Amino acid sequence: MALLPYALARPFLFGMDPEAAHELTIASLTRTQGSALRWAYASRPVSDPITLAGLRFPNRVGLAAGLDKNARCIDGLGAMGFGFVEVGTVTPLAQPGNPKPRLFRLPEAKALINRLGFNNEGLQSFITNVKQSALYQGRGTGCCGPNPMLLGLNIGKNAVTPIERATDDYLTCLDGVYPYADYVTVNISSPNTKNLRSLQSDEALDALLGAISERREQLAQQHGKHIPIFLKIAPDLDADQVSVIAQTLKRYGTNSTGQVNNAWGVIATNTTLSRDAVKGLAHAEETGGLSGAPVLAKSNQVVSQLRAALGKSFPIIGAGGIMSAEDAVSKIKAGADAVQIYTGLIYRGPGLVKEAAALIKTRCAS
Questions:
Q1: How many CB atoms neighbour CB 143 within 10 A?
Q2: Cα separation values, 147 from 34, 45, 82, 263, 320, Å
Q3: Would you state the pLDDT for residue 5?
Q4: 149 close to 78: Cβ distance less than 8 angstroms
Q5: Comparing C-alpha atoms, which of 176, 291, 311, 314 is closest to residue 234?
């Protein structure tokens, strides 16, 4: 991917074990991101700036978390033309994740199934990598230009942490990443960490958001900046569940007059447990979260429900199922302010980033 045009690299990568191909890609991007070789995948970003959650996004296409769990290739990914890149999910302690094999392609459905389980090198290694990125270092020297790419840092809980103490892990991660993030994402929707999605329920969510909001105020005073926090939710929610989440977000994300306070946003959605769209395909019954084309309609439905419940100004980032520029536009039309890509990048390559950003700019003028 890093050294060849993607049309040539993809057959080679798709001939490998999916996780081995992923690791090779990350290693290649890490090795080339600071060199002239990055022009093999680099693209000038489309200029389509919007202000969302108090931040100025250079364009409305971002990278979803999960591709670069350890923040090793922020600059290489950013060179592809993204307006924002989200890395992680990181947990307080390093953990191996679930046993292999744990990543599967379903090419007939343009989909992936993963049960990786927040495999990562831990918070301290993650922060070290963020600090070493040219994006982070360049901000200190004022060399990033008028519309620098934004960086999101995605946090989670360790598998061994009891769900009753999940808040402790999120607060530990928030303390660590806060100084380096443009925004932080709280991942409570991965299906691959036991009981994690139970944090989306009414009382658990209210307690988690309350604790994070209180800690964020302390960190804002300590570091002299107030960064927004996005909540990443699942597509496997019914209308009542979406309504509960929306009402909880409004309690913390709006002021006493109902105006958005730029404290909270939402990312919809993560992967799905449903297999309705892939029945009969090889690997369709593997345990894990399904991503790619089959998630588009479910994700768009959740985005639409959130927009109706949250109002026109509440920050919503749409993720899930974007395999073409038209898919990206459909998510904006459903109510998202910006979008994120992951599986589409695997199937289509870096060209999808510019295609999506350009079509959104043409079709979805603010």
A1: 10
A2: 20, 10, 12, 21, 26
A3: 74
A4: yes
A5: 291
Cα 83 from Cα 141, distance rounded (Å) = 20
- Residue 191 has what pLDDT? 86
Phi and psi dihedrals of 191, rounded to 5?
A: -85, 0
Of 28, 133, 190, 304, the active-site residue reads 190
Q: b/e per residue, 68-87, with b = 16+ CB within 10 A? A: bbbbbbbbbbbbbbbbbbbb
Phi, psi of 70 (to 5 degrees): -105, 10
Instruction: Kindly write down the DSSP assignment for every residue of 57-93, as one continuous string.
Output: ESSSEEEPTTSSTT---HHHHHTTT-SEEEEEEE-SS
pTM beyond 0.90: the answer is yes
Mean pLDDT by 10 residues, the chain (366 residues): 68 95 95 86 92 96 97 95 96 97 97 96 98 84 62 97 96 98 94 84 90 97 97 93 94 89 95 94 96 97 97 96 98 98 96 96 86
Q: Which residues contact 82 (CB under 8 A, 6 or more apart)?
A: 45, 59, 61, 62, 63, 149, 353
pLDDT score recorded for residue 264: 97
Cβ-defined contacts of 22-27 (< 8 Å, 24+): 22/67, 22/103, 25/1, 26/67, 26/68, 26/72, 26/73
Tokens of 270: 């993560």
H helix and E strand count, the chain: 12, 13
The alpha helices in the chain, defined as continuous H runs, are: 6-14, 18-32, 74-78, 123-132, 134-141, 166-177, 202-223, 239-253, 296-310, 325-334, 343-348, 351-363
pLDDT of res. 172? 98
Nearest-angstrom CA–CA distance, 14 and 6 = 11
R_g (Cα) of the chain, nearest Å: 19
- How many residues are listed for the chain in this entry? 366
299 is catalytic: no
Phi, psi of 349 (to 5 degrees): 85, 180
